[in-house]
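call fold(seq) -> tokens
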Amino acid sequence: MASSGHELPNIVWLVADDLGDGDLGCYGNPSIRTVNLDRMAAEGVRFTSAFVTTSSCSPSRASFFSGMYPHATGAEDLHVYLPENIKILPFYLAELGYHTINVGKYHLGPLVANQFHHRESRVENWRAVLEGRPAGSPFFLSLCFYDPHRDYQPGTIPDPTSSEDVIVPPYLPDTPEVRADLAAYYDECVRMDRVIGDLLGYLEQQGIADQTIVVFFSDNGMPFPRAKTSCYDSGIRTPFIVRYPPKISAGTVNDSLFSMVDLAPSMLGLLGIAPKEGMQGLDASRLFLDPSAVGREYIHAESNWHDLDEHIRAVRDRRYKYIRNCFPRQRANVPLDALRSPSYATLLELRDANRLTAEQMRLFMVPRPGEELYDTVTDPFEFTNLAADPSYTGEIQRLRAECDRWINSTDDVPPVPRRVDLMDIYTREIIRGDILGKPPPFREQ
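ret:
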């Protein structure tokens, strides 16, 4: 369907499922062949300091669709439905005349499903859905991939990644098993990138590439221990690319802090519309258009129930990260899909053989500190906790006060009573290998 000459731009969101922040070629990984996303970054603006509000898929999606923090949506836990009174971006775009579509992963629940005109679960059907859109209307498409979420299978792409080429982060042991696990993850990143290339080519063939705002980001970090479900940067930092040739300069890099709670209000901002009542995010659209514009001073993140009951709050500025663990006497939250992975099995084996590094052993620390403070410039993997260092008293007091301010201003309180932990029920069986290869259990689908 060719362009109808409408004035409102189309909007396309390309949403990865469990993609780490550095796991694209344009973010410095030379071994992940993401040529299409690399080209998209070269044609638009690439953010280096973008963060999701939580590193868990469904509450993260509830947040970036609504412009609200997860705990404020009523859907802060994994697989909890977004309440029907919450308005998400497609609702407001439909009021402007947009035809709104979600293809692929959804995860918002049935109560807000009618805020999309059309939903399709199969990613490969994106072209047919776009071809069937009404003539003369701008469209909003959220193309939500299932890649690179676990489980992984051989043969994902015909030219698989070599285990020798992967980059092993220092919180994971460098073993053949971990390398093979990472290579399988890389392959799903490549598969996703190739679909994105097809879609970008379609926009060009239809003559609407210059009339379409295209946004790429992830819902949370990669599905490996100490990444997904954590409030470390490996869990909450996301790649973030925006391309819109009429207004965004090609090859721009923006180092400003950006929170995904700002995404929905920023989309409205590009259309000249102020954030809607109830949105807690900011209109940061100026950051897309002007790399010299000043962004946020702080981003805020949280971790709630995801197989394990959790209550972590974090605040980060350009350099320092403060983390508050409200349940410090329990182990770190590792999601079930990562618990069932070869990487976690290797961690357990090496732990029991006393062959993990001190940094890798942090995953098993009990109790955890109630407060953590990191200098993310000198310590990007957040291994050295500075909370008790008197040299950083001023920094922790400042960030602690900002965390308190945000908690109070957003009416954020721990749930009472605490929620059931699937990890308590299944961890022993997972470690024994009794349920390896079986799908993880969930409270709600």
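Residues 10-291 form a domain with the Alkaline Phosphatase, subunit A fold (CATH 3.40.720.10).
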